[in-house]
């Protein structure tokens, strides 16, 4: 058994995706998501120039050895581009492993630990008065957990809120668009959003909120404390996570649970946060944290320290990543929540898959492997379109975290 072909496919059915497809000498194929929002061509080049030539002729059964070969062999370890490229290879090899074994990948990860994967959906509104309808729409779809984001009075655009009311795709222009931010307006307003939601929907609905890296630790501590009456399931990315000691300060002031990790790409980014129990959910994803092999290691470390999974699942992670995530989500003992931003029908046609959402739960395919593929002929009809994530500036013009 050996890899005889490796294709890197860039397609843009409404938004850009990068996919790696491996083919063995038996004609068995495997797919991996290699999408890094706003930096897609960097990963495509990394794969095409530095990974694919070394894959041809390798034994696809040697998943761990290939992971170590690509990680240690790079010399320049870690980083979002490298780890996304490794993730794509790893995910495709697990897909192939499942197909040879005739089993869905979750069966190779220890089998089912739960009946289904509890998903959380996105409710967003341009103003406070529109929040209840947005949340009601998710409840009507049987989501048991809802992330709530709302426009901030006085700010033209806010993270997580689609200007058009349609699906939210932040990478909205070739050169970064500029958004504006005011921490004081935000800190004064957000508690009123959750006060409104709790008063309309009661205490049981799981509520989440994404701060999106924008506060200092003491500001995040203040926000966490002001949200305690509304019992959020998690407050996400409260601060930029490079200074991980910042989470120690937040932790000392509030009992609001904390979630972080969608921008992390290796266990080394979150080992201290997990081992010191500074967070409650780790949000790393298959596509950005080295694939199924490495993400499993992160979740296993988390399981030892009361930390649960809460994987990233935005629409800039392809259906291949979602398919792979669900196999892990189903098998690990410390699953928490899975983010679920449904892709467009156009995207789903390019990436036919067997996973589905029903009664608040996501279910992976029972097909051998991951249960997802890419329609290469259809993908070819959607050429790459340059798209960058926005930048963010304070009202005085200072460049701030987006
Ligand atoms: C967000 C993402 O889903 C989330 O929690 O943080 O929408 C994030 O902004 C995008 O994935 C960035 O590409
Ligand atoms: Mg987020």
Which ions and ligands are bound to the chains? D-mannonic acid, magnesium ion
**Helical percent range?**
25-40%
Count up the domains: 2
The CATH first-level class of the largest domain comes to: Alpha Beta
Task: Tell me what portion of residues adopts beta-strand conformation.
Answer: 15-25%
Structural class: alpha/beta
Report the biggest beta sheet as strand number plus sense, adding barrel if it closes: 10 strands, mixed
Shape: globular
CATH second-level architecture of the largest domain: Alpha-Beta Barrel
Mean of all residue-level pLDDT scores: 97
Number of helices: 13
What order do the helices and strands follow?
EEEHHHHEHEEHEHEHEHEHEHEHEEHEE
The overall strand count is 16
As residue ranges, the low-confidence spans are none
The CATH topology label of the largest domain is: TIM Barrel
CATH-assigned homologous superfamily of the largest domain: Enolase-like C-terminal domain
> What is the C-alpha radius of gyration, as a whole number of Å?
20 Å
